[in-house]
Amino acid sequence: MSKVSNRTKIATALVGALALASSSFVVANSLADVQKADSKIHAEAAASQNKVNKYFDQAQDMLFEYGAVADERESLKSYNDYVAGLVADQEATMKLIQDDIDGVDQLRQGVVPLMFKMVDALEQFVALDLPFNLEVRQARVQRLRDTLNTAEVTLAEKYRLILDAYNIERGYGSTLNAQTGQVNIDGKDILVDYLNFGRVALYAQSQDQKSAWMYNKDTKGWDRLEDGYLRNLNKAIKQARGQGAPDMFALPIPAAEAAQ
Q1: Could you read off the pLDDT of 20-54 as tens digits, one per residue?
Q2: Residue ranges of the alpha helices (H) in 129-245?
Q3: pTM (two decimals)
Q4: For residue 34, which of 45, 50, 26 has the smallest C-alpha distance?
Q5: Considering Cα of 124, then 127, then 128, then 130, what sign does the dihedral take?
């Protein structure tokens, strides 16, 4: 019994040792598997995190691009609104210009008859005025008539020439002017120096300074001046030509017309 028991104990011990060895081997294998699984999990987690980081960066880039596009859109909208305002203003200006163009014909229809009336009035004025510088003034009126019938001259230029002629005539009323010419006295042409005192009076003095006359608007003729006025008239003619210093002189003037 004692030997059997010992054998049994030894066998049991061997079986226990084998079982312990087997159990240790199993535990070792399970730990390795767990470590491998854990490593795999960490690797997959790292890969997932990289994907998350990548998607986040892409999302950030897209958000930045969206913000830039939105800003550009607002800028373009503001610019388009500005351009639209300019276009609207230009269209309004073009409409005004077109309205002016459309009214040119009507303006022309009113201005052309007016210009002919102005030339007629100027011609009549020269004919009724004192006959000083008469040939030059009549020639100016005739040039205006010729210009009105010329297609090469613009309407604006024609009107300007008429206004210039009126300004020249207006200037005659405030100047002392002397010129040389001829006057017919009693059927005889005499070379004289004319002097017009604005439109107040017109005088003529023979160039030998021995005779002088004053124009009479009522009779359309010349009245002889007294010899006492010869010296003053000669002084006035020199002043008008810039040949003498400004000085006082006394000359007769026509009586003022009575008011109608």
Answers
A1: 545 555 555 677 777 777 788 878 878 888 888 88
A2: 134-148, 155-172, 230-240
A3: 0.57
A4: 26
A5: positive
